[in-house]
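User: My collaborator and I are trying to settle a disagreement about how two of our proteins should look. Neither of us wants to argue from intuition anymore, so we agreed to look at predicted structures for both before our next call. Could you fold the first one, then the second, and keep them clearly separated?

Assistant: That sounds like a sensible way to settle it. I'll keep them separate. The first protein:
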Amino acid sequence: MYPADCKYTKDHEWIKVEGDTGKVGITDFAQKQLGDIVFVELPEVGRALKLGESFGTVESVKAVSELYSPVAGIVTAVNGALKDKPEAVNADPHGSWMIEIRPSNAADLGALLDVAAYTELVK
C-alpha cells in the first residue's frame, strides 16, 4: 500500500529522493483521514525550510491540515497542477507530490520511517 522507495514522517508526509532532490506529499492514510481535498496551499520556489516546519496546508471538506517538511532544505519546485486539481491527492496520494526539496542535511533522511515502520504506525 505504501511505496517502499519512500521515507515517511509520523505526521503522514512521504519523501521520495531521486538524485539531490526529493518529492514530498501526503500518505494514503492522511488523505483518507482528511476526506475530499478541495484546496492545497504550497510555498514559493526558493523558500528555505527547517526540519518539521510547516510549508503549506491541505483543505478538505472536513478540515484544514498543516503540511510539514520531512527534511531541512530549499524548495526547488511545487506541483502547480494541484492548484486546479487538488482532488488528485485523493486519487493518487503517492503519485501526487506537492513540493520538491533539496535536502541540506542527509541525516534528516536517516531519521525518517521506512515503509515497515510507517505501516506499523498506522495499523
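The second protein, kept apart from the first:
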Amino acid sequence: MHRLKAVLFVWLFAVLILVGCAGSKPAAPPKEYPLKGVVVRLDNQVRTATIKHERIDGWMEAMTMEFPVHDAKEFEKLAVGNAITATVYVIGDAFWIGNIQPAAP
C-alpha cells in the first residue's frame, strides 16, 4: 500500500509538471537590427565573424566585435576584408547575424 501511494504521488507530480509546461507562452521572436561593417576575422571552428561595424541604432555603438553566425550557408558568404550588411538578431542576451549581403560600394 505504501508503494502504491508513492507511485501515485510520482504520477500526480509528473502530470502537474506537464500541465504547467503546457500553459507557458511561446518564445518571442528575436528583435532585428540592421548592421553595416567590415569583416576583420573569421573562426570556422565555431562559425563566428569579427566585424568592425557602424553604430547599430537602438542596440549598440560602433565597435569591433565577434558575432555568431548560426547558418553555415550564411557563414560561407563572409570573407575577411569584405564590407557587408546583415541583420543582427537578439533574444535576451543572445545575438547572432544572418541575412548577410555584400555592402553597396
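Some points you might bring to the call about the second protein. The helical segments are 2-22, 72-76. Residues 35 and 56 are 6 Å apart (CA to CA).
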